[in-house]
Design goal:
five-stranded antiparallel sheet, 4 domains, 28 strands, elongated
């Protein structure tokens, strides 16, 4: 059967399955994120350049942009297929420069965590490493390692307790876990003019920066800007012409309210500049898209202990994972650095050719999420002896640290962190500085960080073994070390509220029934069994 590939959609035959019953109105749904190991894909291809392009003498820049993948879900697995677009900037004979677009296809699969459930499946694929090597005067080979983070989401209700008989006493604690949703603005176009100043354009590229992602009722409004760059040549020297174009787009995300938190991942899928030869301006068009993920923390009581009143009982417990969201947002940070002068190059004419950001795992410090990383900027520096000779590549590394507040009300307990975090360059400015090059870079960070907490919760309570001796109808209990109001009530199988009432304990003791402080200052307790006549 022929496979049908759909861009960023689930297979429609999933809807043909018998739907699950609707949850009761009082049920609170939370998201369960099932994330396996990253999927790595190696692709390689050799290209032959057209005869009208110069022969390759020196490669100045290689960049890879991963286009969104089509997706097929079925037969217990998710399959993805898409394309990687390369931009090859090189110099040929007599210093001639060319900027060529090339592309390769990719394909990978990932098993479904549960083939019987309607999971939401997402893949965030990026080019982790690209190696370009000339194999002839007009031949070049590319080898790229793609890293795909696969996330599969399921929705479930907070765990509940089944009781075989009676109304058991339940010890509850508030559990916090996040609910997630995801959407997209869809593809949109940004267009405008950019001045050439007499330069000849060689190629065009663009990067999106998200300045804000504001949730509304069933919508999220994203504001940002496109940083458009034209690699051009003037009088035999390379230069970068850039301009920023603002944008505002709205995505439909049913169920979202202004109380949710949002992060955005913006990408420019294509960018081109058209103009007549010798024109002073070029007309730029870019196709872009913003993916948005929103999170809210849901609080609901879960049962950590239970017993039957006036009868022995058994409980069934299980460990359950809860993932409160500590951080879900996108933010912008500026970093700067400097490269010392190098012999034989002219840093006053350095041209930006590309860059990337390496981001470490985040850390929680006080009430902030802290991100550390390194900005790697590539530039081309013309030789000091003038035009016509080959430019030299220049690489600049800038370490940085950035922080932003945790979600309102989020409290970190020290449990392991998980989620997704990434960073990208949205702007770079190069300036000559004391014989070297100073760099000012703008970095966009997008992250959703959750804390993986585990609780032992009760799933069922039932009558225990028959013949167990029943406690006396009325007795006096002298609390032991470590006892709590709850443990005493459980030992004598009486309701906690009744035990508190008989002994004149206030609401504060009942609210703290599961901690030793609930019996502070109490030397003895009168225990009255139900039906004793008192």
């Amino acid at each position: 059967m022929e496979k049908k590939w759909e861009k960023k959609t689930e297979r429609t035959d999933r809807a043909a399955r018998e739907p699950a019953p609707l949850p009761a109105k009082e049920e609170k749904k939370i998201s369960r994120v099932l994330t396996g190991e990253p999927v790595f894909t190696e692709i390689s291809e050799e290209f032959t350049l057209p005869e009208y392009e110069p022969e390759i003498r020196r490669i100045l820049r290689v960049s890879a942009r991963v286009l969104p993948s089509g997706r097929y879900i079925g037969a217990g697995k998710a399959e993805f297929a898409g394309a990687v677009l390369y931009s090859l900037l090189y110099q040929g004979e007599e210093g001639k420069t060319a900027d060529l677009p090339l592309s390769s296809e990719y394909h990978f699969t990932a098993p479904l965590a549960d083939a019987e459930k309607d999971l939401r499946v997402f893949a965030e694929t990026e080019a982790e490493n690209t190696v370009c090597r000339p194999t002839g005067p007009r031949k070049v080979s590319f080898r790229t390692r793609l890293k795909s983070r696969i996330e599969q989401w399921d929705e479930e209700a907070f765990p509940s307790v089944e009781s075989a008989s009676g109304s058991p006493e339940l010890l509850t604690v508030p559990a916090v876990s996040c609910r997630l949703t995801r959407g997209t603005t869809g593809e949109f176009e940004i267009a405008g003019e950019i001045g050439l100043g007499g330069a000849v354009p060689l190629g065009c590229d663009g990067t999106l920066a998200v300045l804000s992602a504001v949730p509304g009722t069933d919508t999220v409004t994203v504001k940002g800007e496109l940083w458009a760059r034209i690699t051009a040549e003037r009088e035999g020297r390379l230069l970068t012409l850039s301009k920023r174009f603002p944008f505002e787009e709205t995505a439909e995300l049913p169920g979202v309210t202004p109380a949710w938190s949002c992060r955005a991942s913006a990408r420019c899928w294509s960018c081109r500049a058209d103009g007549e030869e010798g024109a002073d301006t070029a007309y730029l068009t870019a196709v872009c898209e913003v993916e948005i993920e929103c999170a809210e923390n849901v609080v609901s009581p879960v049962v950590t202990d239970a017993y039957l009143v006036a009868a022995p009982s058994d409980t069934v417990k299980q460990n359950r994972n809860f993932s409160p969201c500590l951080f879900c947002r996108s933010f912008h940070v500026s970093v700067s650095g400097k490269k010392a002068p190098e012999d034989g190059v002219s840093p006053d004419a350095a041209v930006f050719t590309g860059g990337e950001v390496a981001l470490s795992a985040p850390e929680v410090r006080a009430a902030e999420m802290v991100f550390s990383g390194t900005v790697n900027v590539s530039a081309a520096c013309p030789p000091a002896d003038g035009a016509g000779a080959l430019a030299s590549p220049l690489r600049i590394e800038i370490p940085f640290k950035a922080s932003a507040p945790l979600l309102g009300g989020a409290a970190y307990t020290g449990a392991p962190l998980s989620g997704v975090w990434k960073a990208s360059l949205s702007g770079v400015t190069l300036r000559p500085d004391g014989g070297g090059v100073s760099v000012e870079a703008e970095v966009d960070i997008s992250a959703r960080v959750t804390e993986e907490r585990t609780l032992s919760v009760v799933s069922a309570v039932s009558p225990g073994a028959a013949g167990e001796e029943a406690p006396a109808a009325i007795t006096v209990c002298y609390p032991r070390d470590g006892d709590t109001l709850w443990s005493v009530a459980k030992r004598f199988r009486v309701p906690v509220a009744a035990l508190g009432a008989v002994n004149g304990l206030g609401e504060s003791a009942l609210e703290r029934a599961a901690i030793p402080e609930s019996l502070d200052g109490i030397a003895s307790l009168v225990v009255v069994r139900p039906g004793s006549g008192r």
